[in-house]
Each structure stands twice: as structure tokens, then as C-alpha cells.
Amino acid sequence: MVTLAERGALICGPEADTHIAAPAAGLRIEDSCGAGDRFAASLAVALAAGHGLEKAVEAAISSAVEFLGGGGVSSLEGSQAPLPPAASGDSSQALPAGEGEPEESVAFALGRRVQSTGGRVVAAGGCFDLLHAGHLRLLEAARGLGDCLIVCLNSDESIRRLKGDSRPLMSQADRADLLLGLSCVDAVEVFSEDTPEQLLKELRPDVWVKGADYDAEQLPETALLRGWGGDVVTVPLEPGRSTTGLASAIAGLG
């Protein structure tokens, strides 16, 4: 894919090339600085949300044109950034989208897109503090149950209430970054409550996955999922893999 400035972009395929034209906005552009970054970031978000390549490129071009039409980098003040929302975040702290309404996070946009095309959205939840092989196996198994995997991640405050002041060992930002580095994870959404029930009500996944140390029939999420026809699946644990054991082993090194 090659960008062509005011002429849009060219998608180069094995058999034919596709030209995506920029909208005829009639803009007077004095400084195009930042347009490429805006295009690249918007393209990544659109692809992560489930758009096909052509639609994603169209959206990215429109986003770049809108950015330049608003004054480009010269219109930014302080820490305001010309980037779309990240693939992870707390939905209560989403970026503003005009008129004071929050912009839909990537996790919610992805879920909506997948379900609108008949796909299955899988969600898995937990603290994922000190990511280990057991976590990886669970998430890989979860991803195999549907068309996308969204991780519902306990916030730092939530973990402190559940596990004490010594936890988490890693910040929610670092935990989210590590999860997003896994090929099986498509998006991460942070929640601040003790349980993910409110987030699940809003996300409405088709499948909810937990480790087999939980009894599916005893989980409060089970009745919730079944209320809209969803399923709850428990995945066998990897023997000898746990955050507590890993933390103890690390502490023993000191």
C-alpha cells in the first residue's frame, strides 16, 4: 500500500492495483506534517476493528483529511494527540468524540463489527499479573473458540481491593501492553469494578472463558451470558504455572 498525498492511496495486489481517492474536501493545506502518522494510526485501528483493507484505507484517508482540515499539528495544544483510541483502555476514560460524547473503544468497535458479520466474540477476564505460560495457553484456547478475543483486564485499583496492597506486581498499562503483544489477543478493555459483570453487559460477548479453577455454574457471569444466549467455557490449567509461584521464585532470587 502506497500513499499518494492529495491523490489518496494505492493498494498494490498480486493481480491488480486499487486506487482509493481522497475525498474532494477543497482544503487549503499549509502544513501536511502529521498527516502520515494520522493515516497510519487510523489504518491500524480500522484493521483491528475488523474492516477490510479497502474500507480501512478509506477510513484512514478520511481521518487524515479531517485532521489536516482541522489545522493539523498547529491546532494541537498541550498533550492533545492526533491519534485514534488505542486498542486497550478504560471505557470510562475514552477519548472525546465531539459534543462531549465518548468515542467507542477499539474493543467495543471490534466486537460490534465481528458480531454484525455473524462472527463470534470471545472474552476472557483476569488480572494477568506476571504473564506466564498458563495465561498464554488459556488465551490461545479462548481465541480458538471464536473470531476475535477481547481480554477484560482488572485495573490496578481492582486488583488492590481483591489481592491486597502488594499487588499488582505490574501496572495495568504494562499488563495490557504484554497482552496485546500476543497474537491470540485482539483487544484489551480495562475495568475498575471487582467483577467484570458491568463490562460484559455492555460488551455482550458470545463466549466467556475462565480457568478450570472456577466452577462455571457458580460464576455470576454465567447467568449473565446465558441471558443473551452466550456460553461460558472453562479451560484446564497448566500444572505448576501461577503468578503466585512465579512471584515467589523471583523473590527467592533476592
Automatic annotation (TrEMBL):
InterPro entries: Archaeal_FAD_synthase (IPR050385), Cyt_trans-like (IPR004821), PfkB_dom (IPR011611), Ribokinase-like (IPR029056), Rossmann-like_a/b/a_fold (IPR014729). This is Bifunctional protein RfaE, domain II. GO terms for molecular function: nucleotidyltransferase activity. Residues 124-216 form the Cytidyltransferase-like domain. The keyword ATP-binding does not apply. Residues 76-100 are annotated as: Disordered. Keywords: Carbohydrate metabolism, Multifunctional enzyme, Nucleotidyltransferase, Transferase. The keyword Transferase applies. Gene3D superfamilies: 3.40.1190.20, HUPs (3.40.50.620). Residues 2-65 form the Carbohydrate kinase PfkB domain.
